[in-house]
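Recap quiz, item 2
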Amino acid sequence: MKKLNIGIIGAGRIGKVHMKSIAYSVPQAKILGITDVYKEHLQELADTYGIEKIYDDYKAMLADPEIDAVLVCSSSDTHSKIAIEAAEAGKHIFCEKPVDLTPEKVQAVIDAVEKAGVKLQVGFNRRFDHNFSHIRSLINEGKIGKLELVKITSRDPEPPSAQYAAVSGGMFLDMTIHDFDMAAFIAGSPVEEVYANATCLVDPAIGEAGDVDSAVISLKFASGAIGVIDNSRRAAYGYDQRVEAFGSLGAAVAANDTETNVTLMNADAVSTDKPLYFFLERYMQSFRDEMIQFVDCVLNDKPTPTTGLDGLNSILVALAAKKSVAEHRPVKISEIG
Amino acid sequence: MKKLNIGIIGAGRIGKVHMKSIAYSVPQAKILGITDVYKEHLQELADTYGIEKIYDDYKAMLADPEIDAVLVCSSSDTHSKIAIEAAEAGKHIFCEKPVDLTPEKVQAVIDAVEKAGVKLQVGFNRRFDHNFSHIRSLINEGKIGKLELVKITSRDPEPPSAQYAAVSGGMFLDMTIHDFDMAAFIAGSPVEEVYANATCLVDPAIGEAGDVDSAVISLKFASGAIGVIDNSRRAAYGYDQRVEAFGSLGAAVAANDTETNVTLMNADAVSTDKPLYFFLERYMQSFRDEMIQFVDCVLNDKPTPTTGLDGLNSILVALAAKKSVAEHRPVKISEIG
Amino acid sequence: MKKLNIGIIGAGRIGKVHMKSIAYSVPQAKILGITDVYKEHLQELADTYGIEKIYDDYKAMLADPEIDAVLVCSSSDTHSKIAIEAAEAGKHIFCEKPVDLTPEKVQAVIDAVEKAGVKLQVGFNRRFDHNFSHIRSLINEGKIGKLELVKITSRDPEPPSAQYAAVSGGMFLDMTIHDFDMAAFIAGSPVEEVYANATCLVDPAIGEAGDVDSAVISLKFASGAIGVIDNSRRAAYGYDQRVEAFGSLGAAVAANDTETNVTLMNADAVSTDKPLYFFLERYMQSFRDEMIQFVDCVLNDKPTPTTGLDGLNSILVALAAKKSVAEHRPVKISEIG
Amino acid sequence: MKKLNIGIIGAGRIGKVHMKSIAYSVPQAKILGITDVYKEHLQELADTYGIEKIYDDYKAMLADPEIDAVLVCSSSDTHSKIAIEAAEAGKHIFCEKPVDLTPEKVQAVIDAVEKAGVKLQVGFNRRFDHNFSHIRSLINEGKIGKLELVKITSRDPEPPSAQYAAVSGGMFLDMTIHDFDMAAFIAGSPVEEVYANATCLVDPAIGEAGDVDSAVISLKFASGAIGVIDNSRRAAYGYDQRVEAFGSLGAAVAANDTETNVTLMNADAVSTDKPLYFFLERYMQSFRDEMIQFVDCVLNDKPTPTTGLDGLNSILVALAAKKSVAEHRPVKISEIG
């Protein structure tokens, strides 16, 4: 069996997650090489995972004819540039989100990919989460009838620094973007209009940096269904990730995942585990499964489950949400870009 | 001990609920008399609950010096008129919601009550619900810190007829009004602005009658907290009544009530009870407890827990929500009335 | 409609529970009179519930031709004697458990009742509990197939005094007797053999008084099914009352009841309510429903749902359990009496 | 870093589970070689996991001085023989359960291991389960006070063939043995006496083969605590694996694990996932974690968490349970062997 030769660009936190997934859970793929702007830890990673090549830079990797596909795990501001070059080099691409913060550049990636005839999968890992993909399956099976409402609760355990919030593009672009994609995924329909009721309640420094940290975001989907996302940058009890789909025949509701299913009962309380702490704990299974699917799509020439268009759509919704806050009114996605 | 002599105006569904509560659970009160525009069943009720007097009409009741307090349980369009007359007659008043559909008339009731120096309690029974009042208590005890978000899910098991929806004032005034009051109760702060994302997904006839049946309603409270209510006129699995309060130190979440706590596990599924079917099943305890408190407030000269102002505020929010749908924009409560 | 005239013998804790149930929830019955060896509080009870007669003693009540039925709520050691006299007086009988601590005396009650042709219902209220009766219904509907195993967890929130434990007949006769009845009720079959693994872990004084406070009791039913009861005199988190039925097609499991369905999530824990504190909180609904059924059975000449035989069987199992501990071996019920 | 060189004896279902765990989750170890009486699939496994050596038989493996430790995953009847030889060859040993069906042979393994000064860990993987190990931690932290009761529910999704039941040593030795170990683990104390109430309710052929398929097993621990295990060879809803520890200050209760945390609510029911189907789904995490600990114990010269004595004790309890059924009486462990 021919294995897919993968190159990983960026060996930071998420790059290492994918490294481990491929090495241990995707026998159809081989990590041929890695590269990063920081080089100190690359040899140790190569040793651990049996990786043959360490490239000086991503250009060297793209120039290597043995590489079939690349994972773009570098810093966010380099995603679109590298992805376009990778497409031009004829490499299949798994690109971490956000593809870029501007719709034009995301579109440029989509165009480059189309022109080159390569695969592009965007890292919306949560679509592969056991709970959320099960909700999608129940909808597909007709278990809740015609979808009418999507509700998403998405709260981080602790806020980022105000500096980060300022440069990341803001909460909608760095955090809610996952929820915008999830909303469209569960709805089975793109968002058409958004109204964001957002404010700064968690950390005044975030507000001073011009961003929000708490929001209720109202959605209208092309299908006619409606939706709502509630966000907070800080949930004292951990990472709160719940999704609910409501339809003409019923509802499907995903609760949080926990470390154990043990209940402790004593004179103080009846208590259970808090939600898993943050995204690495909560979504490890989904990170693995998106890799399995990416490799399968490339090897067997299937359409990727999360496309450049999904990446573009989420950014458009995020920008519309920012505009909604700025202009204090509902904003149609068609007004953006 | 002097018992409070109560007269009940209107012996329909909700009038009978209060009759039973007072007769069996409020030893400090006595139902002295009843009246209704329909008279056939009054004698039987009087026999069952040991009620001495059946009045020809509410004016006769108000003229009876033995009556200390009245429950206004007549049809909604008569509430404000009767309440004002009751106040003028010096009777304490428990008035079912909505007090009236226009803010002016509600204000007139408030003014009359104030002038007469009588008590007024409005029938927002859900504030007395064991789950929701417990959330309020947890907030008061500081268990979730500073409140940042209120989330309410409120779905009826089946839609009303389109005719009813047309004359009731619409979903916001006949159904969501309870949720608007609950939102302010949980927030501990009035609603200042509302944006209603509402549509007709359940029954096209409701839409043709000019109303909506599905909504996501975004709220801003005077305190700075934000909120959201999601409504549907039809949940296939029954009456869905959930409330969540999120704050700086945690969250308190109320699940639905069920008939039993039995789980059935077999080859098909692991299943539990559906939510209690509708408001009579779900809220019976709260109907009883609001009566206990009303009687206590009158006898011991305490402020009532749900005031005319609460009634007014909920109507203002409902009207703002209607305006928000009509004008497709967020509407401040101060714009109404 | 002819109302059933009821006399209540014994106006202690349980007598008052039944008084309230009948007065407020059983319109087909009237509490005609009460009696008790303590007389101070009888007039107040009579006033509260509109009871006409206060008898000097139960013999006076039994002599009153207006009395149709009596509730035997006096001290346990008087149950059988009073019940026999009541039967001889032609009164229908609701008798609190235990009917008596010796099988002979229980049989004497059964014989007297049969001879007199009156109804006898024994106060195994838990059969009327919403959770446990629902399990029985699920079994009847075939939802778990052929029953193979009954599991009961029954733990009190706090132990009785050692003195009480000594005179009550011991844990099996005063506490587990309810569980023995529940086991037979769920199994739909009498217990045939019992092995009690019992010890004293909670309060050494109970052991010194010759009783146990902790037990795992293994059961064989006539049907071939098996069962187990675990008991403790003290659960730090409150009254733990769970039942599980397992069969060829699945299982039905009853969890504890709680005051609310609210979950509190904060940095410390995710916590929910403790179980309702003790039997008055936990079983109030069942106390009411057993009264409704008793009155219905008498008025409409139906067989009572909990018979003298049920009372006898539970005592036989309790005595067999005591013998099992004493002789450290499984004991057949047929060895008793 | 010196890696531990491991040889795996037996490449069947459980051998492959350990192979994958070590290859992907235990960087401190290297699978140097494998062997099996069936040889066809060995090369493919060696390729998949990068295993250098395929031995003709386990004797060849034991003769290889490069091998530091072996996993005994061969058929059960060969465990003790191979383990003894491995000890004599100076290899550390991870031995699947049961070590042997006779206490004498298990003791012989213990003696050989002690004499050779090698490590022995027995495959009681469930001690490493996230739920059950958390209960043990809660007990250690004093969260439930002094332990008084251990309750284990252990039901397989489907019965084995009657032939298997006959040769496996029977339910107590092939299935309940895990529960006996779990009981001692949770109790923190060995079982001293057992009474087994066991019968054949699932498959008459199992009864005809002389075995049981349903049981309630009552336990006394050396600590004075009591316990109970309920077993069935067939739960229609899947693999039911629950543990409860009850003590002077409270209780810790482990529910089943499920594939998702999604609840589906519709007109039929409110339903959730069934338990994970069987032990490979349910206990994969524990299989991985027991390998991590085994390697850590050998490399860092720590005592193994599941010892030969644990293996011996479980077999003694299983044999006592068989004797209890045969003789219809409680049996002390000291009566065995």
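The mean pLDDT of chain C is 96.
DSSP finds 13 helices and 15 strands in chain C.
End of item.
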